[in-house]
Amino acid sequence: MLSRRFIRIKVLKTLYGYLNAGGGLADLATKELMFSLHKTYELYGYFLVLPIALADYAAQQIALGKQKQRPCEEEKNPNTKFADNTFVQLLRETAPLQAWAQQEKMLWSKDVLKKLYHKILSTPYYQQYMARAERSLSEDKLLITKILEYSIEDNEDIYAWIEEQSIYWVDDIEYCLSHAIRTLKSFVSHGKNELLPDYKDKDDKEFVERLFSNAVVNYKEYRDLVDKHAKNWDVERVAFMDIVAMVAAIAEITTFANIPIKVSLNEYIEIIKYYSTPNSCNFINGVLDKIVADLQSQHKIEKTGRGLVDMQ
Questions:
Q1: What is the C-alpha end-to-end distance of the chain, expressed in Å?
Q2: How far apart are CA 123 and CA 80, in angstroms?
Q3: pLDDT (tens digit per residue) in 85-131
Q4: What's the DSSP call for residue 237?
């Protein structure tokens, strides 16, 4: 679930914060980085259990309506199609999801559920779903994915609550939501339904720790390289994020023999488009090209296997 690009972004942000604060204990910064990635994965889980929480809230509202002294006709004979959604039942029966939700105590705010539920009630897709007498697992599944696709993103109540729960979730909502939708769409009635793993494999987790550690330990050396090859620019006026991005790129190029140089360069240039100035891409691209040529001439870059792809 945590892609290499997402990992690079997290490393870049943590490195920026660490250096901007004047450095300090690198071990604590590494722990914070790993914890932030753990929290990202946890938010993915929260979106997976949200349909269950919504269906439970709907069932509670139905029960409350029936308990009134003078229930209206709709309360006497409620439409339980959403509360009894068969795809939600499938989620309840997905053991890994339930075990994870209990372990992490994934509980949505009742106030947030109330506001979201009443927002969903007024949507055409929900009203059309409830109006159809027939039902199927595929139809029930489609409703759940539509809720996540159309009623969560840019929902101010949900965003505000999520941001209150963890400072690490502020920038991760769309990323985690998209992966939760992808997971739900993959679920079927028969067979083993699996959650996305946090890391694709152990190499990705090692990638996080080695990249950050190398950037911190060798920061002065890498910063000197940037200053040396950016002498035609006023380095004092260069955005600090650009400096940090180049340091991270150098750390990756010199640390991971199996990652092609062009892959590393392209990744950081793409990332910086969203986190720095309009002129940053050209600046970073030009300086890093010079740095790579310098390091290659000194035989300080070693590539093997796939890492040799762009070295021919």
A1: 32
A2: 17
A3: 999 999 999 999 999 999 999 999 999 999 999 999 999 999 999 99
A4: G
